[in-house]
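Run log, item B.
One chain of 387 residues. Sequence copied directly from the ordering sheet:
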Amino acid sequence: MSTLARFTLTLAPALAFFGTGAHAQCAGGFFLQPNALQAAIDAAPAGGVVEISATTGPFNEGYSVCIDKPLTLVGLGSSPVTLMVTGSEGIFGFPGECAVIHVAASVHGVVGFRNLKILGAAYHHDGFYQGPTGIRCESPNAAIVLDHCIVDGCDYPFADEFSGSGAPGVSGTVSSLVAVDSTVAGGDAVPKSLGFAGDAGDGIDVLGEVVLVRSTCSGGAGSNTVGYPDCAFPHAPGDGGDAVVAVKVYAWGSVGTGGEPGEALDCSGTPIAFGSPGLGLGANPPATLQVTQQPVLGGSASFAFDNPSVAPVTLGIGVHGWSPAIELPGVGPIFLGPGAILIGSPLGIGSLGVPVPNEPFLIGMHFPVQALVGSVLSNPDTAVILR
């Protein structure tokens, strides 16, 4: 593979103007305007890295972006860099399809986000206010990886409306959605509806597999409702959002909280009916493996794992990105995919360093890792080479 196949493109303050060139296209009624972040995404090669400097954040040009290839967006700095969308015509899409970041149906591979705060903010289109999802993916072949990220769906922006729902944090169709050390939240519905109530946004609502490691997911709150035009006959209140809605959920050391339901209020403001509360995430085992030093070209990566019994350890590193789980009876789910690298140690250690070749083509590659400590399979974690 050519050493020029991947490179790092830094989004600097000088790029805070409209970009040029062909723009990626996403489905679902999505309308894309040129903007600096989109220009950086368009210019990066498949598998590349787009770095967003902390000096440019919060990054808010009023337009959302489309990713149509495997790519990693990285916020630089000690705190997450904010990406959000506001403005009157910043994004367009049918309800439930609006998003700060769209991932196109054509994507095959990993789309990664690291050290970013992705916030849906209300926008106005043709007299209607809609709140975007943080991330929406349309590809059953895409693995979305959130690493030290915060992703929020939009709260409905007004206190009193005829209806209005909150947006999910992440929605759509995926092969896998992996959240490591991240927080994902659905938006609240309109606080008080003058007619039909709005339901809250789910934290995660995807057709596909969800993997949570040391992460938190929460649903938004459903709206209260009063009758219109007669307060004596209120409509049904809104339901709270679920923490996670997915085909399959795997979780370690993670917390999921359902949103509060709305209430139907009579003319005196007394609740007379309640919506359904959102569903939370069940109990899950602790996370026992963690990447303590991300890999660097010509350097190393470090991994720590709980090993109180001083058992032999085998560390597995996937080399083809994140793969859907393979369930091994009596062992657990393995996410490493085919051809994983196995590194064994009979010494009963609690940490391990792995050298990284100085090969530029490795930049932008994502590596799922898991450890077998004695006969116990750990949680997965994610490693990505950025430099």
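Observations after the first pass:
- The longest strand covers residues 170-180.
- The two ends are 17 Å apart (CA to CA).
Flagged for discussion on Thursday.
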